Amino acid sequence: MQNIETYIKRRLRLMESMEPDSVLFLFSAPPARKSNDVFHPFRQDSDFFYFTGFDEESAALVITGESTTLFLRDKNPEQETWGGLRLGVDSAVERLGVSEAHNIDKFQDKVQAILKNRKTIYHRFGYDPKRDALLLESAAELLKRTRNGEFGPTRIIHLSALTHEMRIIKSAEEIEQIRECALITKEAHESAMSAARAGMVEYELEAELLRVFKRHGGTDAYPSIVAAGENACILHYIRNDSPLRDGDLVLIDAAAERGLLNADVTRTFPVNGRFNPEQKALYEIVLAAQRGAIARMTTAHTMDDAHDEAVRIIAQGLIDLRFVSGSLDEVLENKLYRKYFMHRTGHWLGMDVHDVGAYHIGDAPRRLVAGMVATVEPGLYIPVDDDRAPPPFRGIGIRIEDDVLIREGSPEVLTEFIPKEISAIESFMNR
Ligand code: GLY
Ligand code: MN
Ligand code: MN
Q1: In whole angstroms, what is the distance from residue 380 CA to residue 399 CA?
Q2: Residue of 180, 208, 248, 253 marked catalytic
Q3: I need a surface site. Which of 32, 116, 269, 417 has the fewest CB within 10 A?
Q4: Distance 418 CA to ligand 3 centre (A)
Q5: Shortest CA distance to 404 belongs to which of 395, 396, 416, 412?
Q6: Residues 6 or more apart from 364 whose CB is under 8 A from it?
Q7: Ligand 1: which residue has its CA nearest to atom 2?
């Protein structure tokens, strides 16, 4: 949690951008069931945390032009013995800076009163059908009673219209936290690179990554991808149960989350510490594409510009290797590169790994702005049964992913210090 003032200021900004006579609802994340009565570790909803700094389940924030009210679980010594300490209603105003706090048990009964004489509801609908129904039915109930001179909301606006535009520009504190995640991630990747040996199983490297994340009070930002050999051609590979073979590459897409901020990093390296000529040839293309794309992560460009540059370099590389035929224009026009590079080059990064915020404003790609953070992650994946690629290239998958801070002038690559050049990887692994 950051300083309480941070959250108060964010709520004030939210209040200022709300329409007159409106009310905004924001709910904590639901607990996620793993199986039967076992739950995944609780992970707060990013929007909810951004505006409250409050990390408990079963809570609702209500903002109007006049007040911010938090509904939360009250203290309960018996239940706290099982589920852990709670902040409780009495401490919430002072500790979180809200104007009022109430027991969440009362929330349902109060919704109608909250909606009375409001014209507009802000709510992130489509996530929890019960909450959607509660708000809609309560609003409809009020609208039936207009003969008394009362009125109820007739409009509902998705909350993302307000919150996601705030979250897309990172504060100095958030950038500092992402830097810390980047440092932890560096240690994790280096530790996995150091540990890798032929004969190990992918999950042993996953364990190494998790050990480092946890040792620093973090966790994995997303299930780590540890993909050896042709597994690297499966973009969302998370089984991590294949052996590492001498002569293969291993692709690791893994990063730390801490304090609800994230890094997102991919490195691809040889199990035995030395790239072979085919691996080198492909790696150099992906690296050039990444460098080209990063050079376009400036306030003069858009994410599409960075993607187009990565695609151009990869397409030329595929032509040079004769994996595709035609002129560069033809290969681009007919998207022939997509067989080998089928995903986008990057995404916003922040409290969510695939962070929120619009990529387009109207029909046009959005210009980058200082304070945005995004990944740059081109890749090349040669299907194992590809008949255009000579056999030694088949089944090679390479992605290189870094996290980039947009600044006035050149961008800062927050994760550049994780070995990336072929020479840097080889000397790190053979030191
Ligand atoms: N690790 C998810 C991604 O790279 O987008
Ligand atoms: Mn990514
Ligand atoms: Mn990634």
Answers
A1: 7
A2: 253
A3: 32
A4: 14
A5: 412
A6: none
A7: 264
